[in-house]
């Protein structure tokens, strides 16, 4: 074996050092690139989104699901029936939740309260009502879509 083809201790350590530096740089840069890489999620889906069958949202219950880039809140009440809203609060974009005891949609961040019948603001700092989504039942499946 000639002398040049032998791996020296120094060469081995340099190779390991290069691998560690490269993997460290990749670990540092990957989240930055991922943050700026355009997502292929639509802002608002152009097609209806299925929630499940008719029993998937029980009376007084709710379901939060992904609707395009943002979550949606589907509520089923005896008085109103099935309604759906964007789950993004109009104040500072916290995610709102349905409270079956108070029968209001609540934002936990700054105590914003919304009316489940039309998404209007009952009290708190939100400046506008929740964005209402269209709900339909087709072939025993609950579908939601953006209002056009
Ligand atoms: S973010 Fe909802 S009340 Fe402030």
Number of strands: 10
Q: Figure out the total of helices.
A: 1
- Low-pLDDT segments: none
CATH topology of the largest domain: Rieske Iron-sulfur Protein
Whole-number mean pLDDT: 91
Separation of the first and last Cα atoms: 76 Å
The main sheet orders its strands as 1-10-9-4-3-2
Q: What are the main properties of this structure?
A:
alpha+beta, 10 strands, six-stranded antiparallel sheet, Rieske Iron-sulfur Protein, four-stranded antiparallel sheet, binds FE2/S2 (inorganic) cluster, 2 domains, 148 residues, single chain
Task: Offer a quick outline of the entry.
The protein is an alpha+beta fold and about 150 residues long. Helices cover about 20% and strands about 35% of the residues.
What does this structure look like?
It is a single chain. The chain is of the alpha+beta class and 148 residues long. It has two domains: 3-36; 49-146, Rieske [2Fe-2S] iron-sulphur domain (Rieske Iron-sulfur Protein). It contains one helix and ten strands. The protein has one helix at 9-36, and strands at 49-53, 61-67, 70-77, 81-86, 97-99, 104-107, 112-114, 121-123, 132-138, 141-146. The strands form two sheets. It has a six-stranded antiparallel sheet, with no helix packed on it. The longest helix has 28 residues, at 9-36. It is elongated, with a radius of gyration of 25 Å. The model has no long low-confidence stretch (mean pLDDT 91). FE2/S2 (inorganic) cluster (FES) binds next to loops.
